Amino acid sequence: MQTKVGLRGELGLRVGELVEVRSQAEILATLDENGELDSLPFMPEMLQFCGQQLTVGKVAHKLCDTISRTGMHRMENAVHLAGVRCDGSSHGGCQSSCLVYWKEAWLKRTDEPSDQGQHRTPPTSRITLPLLHNTTRKEPGPDGEERFSCQATELLRAAPESLPLRDIGQYMVDLRSGNVGLPWLLRSVLVGIFNRLQGRSTRVLPRRLRFRGGKPWGFLAGRAVGRTPTMELGLRAGELVRVKSKDAIQETLNKDLLNRGMGFDVEMSRYCGREARVLGRVNRVIDEKTGKMLHMKNPCIVLEDVVCEGAYNANCPRAWVSFWREIWLERVEESST
């Protein structure tokens, strides 16, 4: 059993600390010819933050694999800065709004003297701004379709090491970094153990002896038969909506918990019954696995401050923006007073 408990990184940052993003020249000097540091791309969308002072939102010491579904992976020397999401401006207008990863080498504490740390910066860079922009594209696919490269598509190269549930060190970092409090941590650990036992039960027990069919926590089950239903409400930014009940949403899902190709998961079910305002509509996102731009055939809505909180997924700090079908939402009439 692994028991690594130290905060990893050059700075050992914690949630809430104020940091300054290093200058463009300093950051470019840390990158290789592919525009990467430790296989993590520095994206052109991040340049606008150079010189700004920002707050550490989460310590990004781990992440969930949404490409190959292999569970949690370990990330080294990285943080998320509060509210800093990719605007997709250099990636074909992708609207995924991913939380950006920042290597600690790209940051400095605000009380650091201006000349401190300059010895870390090589006198020349291996990449220029034009080349950095070129790194946002991969070789076209066999069909000639444009393919993109970003932090999301390259995460498994940047974090190749799997992080099993039994690694106690990850939970110590969760606590010591300020990512979560003790009650939140205990819940995620218990859910993880429960899901592991449920998974084992599906392999060793007959169906009649499995608890809730061996389903993971949340016990979601799609009930739609045939083509899943759809609905268009014409929702606009600023409108108040309520997320429908879990039962109602399950009626719109197939056995794979999909509605017209879009998934609904247990993290999203935590918002059932809650109200939120529409942030906007999503029309195009980059497929993390292929790098291709996906164009939405059915309406997709994002809601203000509604993200995956990792509550049932080992406290993953990615804060993935949740996508909603309009059939999962209902308008809320607001008082005119």
| Proportion of residues in β-strands | 15-25%
The main β sheet shows up as: 5 strands, antiparallel
| Strand count | 17
In total, the number of domains comes to: 2
- Global shape: globular
Overall pLDDT confidence: 92
| Helix fraction by DSSP (H/I, runs of at least 4) | 10-25%
Query: Nearest-angstrom radius of gyration?
Result: 21 Å
In the sheet with the most strands, the strands line up as 8-7-4-1-9
Distance separating the two termini: 60 Å
Count the DSSP helices.
7
List the uncertain runs: 1-9
Based on helices, strands and strand pairing, what is the structural class?
Answer: alpha+beta
Q: List the helices and strands in order.
A: EHEEEEEEEEHHHHEHEEHEEEEE
What oligomeric state is this? Answer: single chain
Question: What structural keywords apply?
Answer:
single chain; 337 residues; alpha+beta; SH3 type barrels; 2 domains; five-stranded antiparallel sheet; four-stranded antiparallel sheet; 7 helices; 17 strands; globular; disordered N terminus
Describe the protein.
The chain has two domains: 18-158, no CATH class; 220-331, SH3 type barrels, CATH 2.30.30. It is built from seven helices and 17 strands. With 337 residues, the protein is α+β, with helices and mostly antiparallel strands. A hairpin with a 6-residue loop joins strand 14 (284-286) and strand 15 (293-295). The longest helix has 23 residues, at 182-204. The chain has helices spanning 24-28, 129-134, 155-158, 168-177, 182-204, 246-250, 266-269; strands at 18-21, 36-37, 40-41, 53-59, 62-64, 72-74, 78-81, 102-103, 107-109, 240-243, 258-259, 262-263, 275-281, 284-286, 293-295, 301-303, 329-331. The chain is globular. A five-stranded antiparallel β-sheet has the order 8-7-4-1-9, with no helix packed on it. It has a four-stranded antiparallel β-sheet with strand order 16-13-10-17, with no helix packed on it.
